[in-house]
Amino acid sequence: MKKVVTLAAILFSVSLSWAQNAAPVVSNVSFTPGVGTVAITYDVADAENQNVEVTLRASNDGGKTFSVIPRLVTGDVGAAITPGTGKQITWAAGVEQPTANLNTLVYRVIADDGEKPDIAKIIAQIDSKEILEKFFHVYGNNNPRSQEHYDQTRDYIYNYYNGLGYRARRDTFTYPQRNGVNMIGVKPGIMREDSTVLMSGHYDTVEPTMGADDNNMSVAIVMEAARVLKDYQFKNSIVFANWDLEEVALVGAYYYAISEKSVGLKSVLNFDGISIYKEEANSQKVPTGFDLLFPAGYAKAEADSFRGNFITLIGDAKSATLNKKAVAFADQYTPNLRYIDLTCPDPSCAIATDLRRSDHAPFWDRGIPSVFFTSTTEFRTDCYHKACDTTYNIDFSTKVIKLATSMLIDEAQQKLNLSKEIS
User: Fold this and answer.
1) C-beta of residue 255 within 8 angstroms of C-beta of residue 170
2) Could you tell me the CA-to-CA distances from 97 to 56, 74, 352 in Å, in that order?
3) What is the pLDDT of residue 100?
4) pTM across the whole model
5) Which helix (H) or strand (E) holds 182?
6) CB burial class (10 A; 0-12, 13-18, 19+) of residue 152?
7) DSSP assignment of 114-170, as one string?
8) Buried b (16+ CB within 10 A) or exposed e, 227-249
9) CB 386 within 8 Å of CB 74
10) d(Cα 52, Cα 112) in Å, to the nearest integer?
11) Which candidate, 59, 356, 31, places its Cα nearest to that of 191?
């Protein structure tokens, strides 16, 4: 029996007004189940008449997720497909999905014209006023001694991700004498839902601090990245995570890292204490032995009279490539953001424990490339974990999230001109 798809509300493409060319359009998708095979028919048009790459995905849960990746496919699928009507893909579904009811599977046809996104124009949408609005919603004591505010912060984060159309959830876990809740927002990848990149900043604070730098500003910038990217399509899934119980022992991040949720995770960008900026000479301290472990980083700080006016980009040995990307993207997309990059010579950075003191460390320990963004907390401010943690620099914080978002776009493989149709 041939299944014909109604186009209402299911054709989705992104073609913003400033895009240089229009997205290819997939239409008239239908499928005909056979004996162990499925024939999918579709039309594809491209305003510039460019060849497109066509990909097929399938869902066995009613379209909630598209985790089935057909591989035994022939016909008008793959690279260099010319636009036209009556295109057909044949999938040997009975071999790959022998127990599936082929009539109930949901199919997604994706067309990609290979145009590259303008990352600079995307990150230009990051707005310091939007960041501050989020910041003041979460600002305050996020810990059990201020349970009401703690709960309000959780609700706000959940509702925000949910309002963006993400798969919002509360990941609960138990730690001795305390229950924790990680706040998660997932933007599913259009082609590889099981391949993910993650951006994070913990939301819990210590008593009695108000947590401006540690770590409410980090929460706000993660949420701002989520806002800016909500209307774009990505090949890989993006997870926006705000961890709980970081201030206990990185518990929330460890819970996630050792769970099945981290399967398929390819990279992590983590923020902690990113908003302190000082131009005064000698406002930046360094840990003992820093000059021996990281002579180039030390020399860079010394050359600028140890001013606390830079973001630190930190990776372990397995994160070296990702940290190099941070440097390259900083130079390209945020040239006015000063940085010092540090890459430990060993996996997990056991040689420098000061660089493990946030939620990237659990992912390092799992061998997952992760970059830690920090303005170095107590090495730049006397208000670390104190009631006076009430100050921040919004311009500096905005530059930091622009850099990280440029990396996230690249890691998730954003495609400006990608369209899909679901049957």
Assistant:
1) no
2) 14, 16, 49
3) 87
4) 0.91
5) strand 178-187
6) middle
7) -PPP-HHHHHTT--HHHHHHHHHHH-S--SGGGHHHHHHHHHHHHHHHHHTT-EEEE
8) bbbeebbbbbbbbbbbbbbbbee
9) no
10) 5
11) 59
Please state, in angstroms and rounded to a whole number, the distance separating the CA atoms of residues 10 and 246. Answer: 40
Peptide bond into 215 cis (omega under 30): yes
Best CA proximity match to 373, nearest among 259, 182, 221? 221
Alpha carbon distances (Å) from 365 to 226, 238, 294, 342, 368: 26, 21, 21, 17, 8
d(Cα 267, Cα 408) in Å, to the nearest integer? 9
Distance CA(211)–CA(391), nearest Å, equals 9
CA dist 297 and 343 (Å) reads 10
Give dist(CA 192, CA 251) in Å, integer: 28
CB–CB of 271/242 below 8 Å?
no
Measure Cα distances from 287 to 126, 293, 376 in Å: 33, 10, 10
- Tell me how far apart the alpha carbons of residues 308 and 281 are, in angstroms, rounded to a whole number: 8
Tell me the mean pLDDT per 10 residues along the chain, length 423.
32 38 86 93 93 94 90 97 97 93 90 89 98 98 95 98 98 93 96 94 95 98 98 94 97 97 97 98 96 97 98 98 98 98 97 96 98 98 97 98 98 74 68
Q: How far is CA 186 from the centre of its chain?
A: 9
pLDDT of residue 129: 98
CA distance 391 to 278: 12
The end-to-end CA distance of the chain, in Å, is: 14
Residue pair 371/314 in contact by the 8 Å Cβ criterion: yes
Closest CA to 315 of 335, 339, 345: 345
